[in-house]
Specification:
22% helix, 5-stranded antiparallel beta sheet, 2 domains, 3-stranded antiparallel beta sheet, alpha+beta, Immunoglobulin-like
Length: 144
């Protein structure tokens, strides 16, 4: 090996070593997050005349949470509850419920479509969007 190629080989070895260590660290962090399990669970939608909707859920552990409605593309529709401390637990008394009148942040009724609830968990430094969704349909006889 020539004197000129040694720095290039050394740089390559250092770069590959760094990438391997970074990949291993990412795997460890990801596995740790998986082991923690879900943060939000048992999400349930209730529909009431009006139209009015109510979403209820449990937290596996306490956190400061902002609850938001998002559309099918993940765009924020409305903040249902600004960031506030919520307790964790799975007893009926531990459920957190928030109402929604089917309107966006400007007070305009949302168009028919699929809507989900998104949770910004400040302490866990996570954002979770529910798999459960609310499907708002057009009224019979015309658009809603």
């Amino acid at each position: 090996m020539s004197e000129r190629s040694r720095p290039a080989v050394l740089i390559s070895v250092v770069a590959v070593t760094f990438l391997l260590v970074a990949t291993a660290a990412a795997i460890v962090v990801t596995q740790h997050l998986r082991d923690e399990g879900p943060v939000v669970s048992s999400i349930r939608w209730k529909t009431r005349p009006g139209p009015r909707y109510r979403v209820c859920f449990y937290l596996t552990r306490g956190d400061t949470v902002q609850v938001e409605m998002v559309d099918a593309s993940g765009q924020l529709v409305r903040v249902l509850a600004p960031a506030q401390p919520l307790n964790g637990g799975d007893a009926k008394a531990d459920a957190h419920c928030f109402g929604w009148d089917g309107r966006d942040a400007d007070g305009t009724p949302v168009p028919p479509g699929v809507y989900r609830v998104r949770f910004e968990l400040k302490n866990a430094d996570r954002v979770a969007t529910s798999g459960e969704h609310l499907n708002i349909r057009a009224k019979q006889g015309g658009p809603s």
